[in-house]
């Protein structure tokens, strides 16, 4: 009976995520709705911890600009990202995305994060590569409050509760996690049979542009 009472009290958090826009440059919208256990998290910071696969990344310079304007807040691990690396040379990226309260729902939170698809290797017969994003983990940080030990467990997160604090504090994750649902990003890729044509066109375009530049330099005698 005690186990049943704990399960009834510690209701799962509902997590939904959606990709907005089209193409390589998208917005990842994450929504979190806490269950009855969310009553204990009032006044606390709520975040979504998600792991992005190598096929998708966050631009740290774009994120820094958004954070300066208070449009979003997130912590990237690692914080140094090669934005030019293709998918087969990139690694996973761990993101801690801080959520904002939903004014229309007392237990609801949401946040948006700009993400970008990486270039993939040319494919044999498909013009799209599939990048799978798993559902994030819900975390709560209460620097002055205690959460129920039956419903929340400590999480190893070296990040502050919010932008107002600098030193890390204790984060907690809900013990009853929702079923992980996958979100699929379709990234356009080239076909292997077009490789020769692409190389020839690229070489011709490079030679033509270089010739035009040299002709302009010789015409106006500006070599310095």
Automatic annotation (TrEMBL):
Transmembrane segments: 195-218
A biological process term (GO) from this entry: GPI anchor biosynthetic process
Compartment annotation: Endoplasmic reticulum membrane
One cellular component term from this protein's GO annotations in UniProt: endoplasmic reticulum membrane
Topological type in the membrane: Single-pass membrane protein
Keywords, sorted A to Z: Endoplasmic reticulum, Glycoprotein, GPI-anchor biosynthesis, Membrane, Transmembrane, Transmembrane helix
Pathway as given in its UniProt record: Glycolipid biosynthesis; glycosylphosphatidylinositol-anchor biosynthesis
Chief place of localization: endoplasmic reticulum
InterPro entries: PIG-X/PBN1, PIGX
Function field: Stabilizing subunit of the glycosylphosphatidylinositol-mannosyltransferase I complex which catalyzes the transfer of the first mannose, via an alpha-1,4 bond from a dolichol-phosphate-mannose (Dol-P-Man) to the glucosaminyl acyl phosphatidylinositol (GlcN-(acyl)PI) intermediate to generate alpha-D-Man-(1->4)-alpha-D-GlcN-(1->6)-(1-radyl,2-acyl-sn-glycero-3-phospho)-2-acyl-inositol and participates in the sixth step of the glycosylphosphatidylinositol-anchor biosynthesis. Probably acts by stabilizing the mannosyltransferase PIGM.
Family: Belongs to the PIGX family.
Listed name of the protein: Phosphatidylinositol-glycan biosynthesis class X protein
Organism expressing this protein natively: Ibidorhyncha struthersii
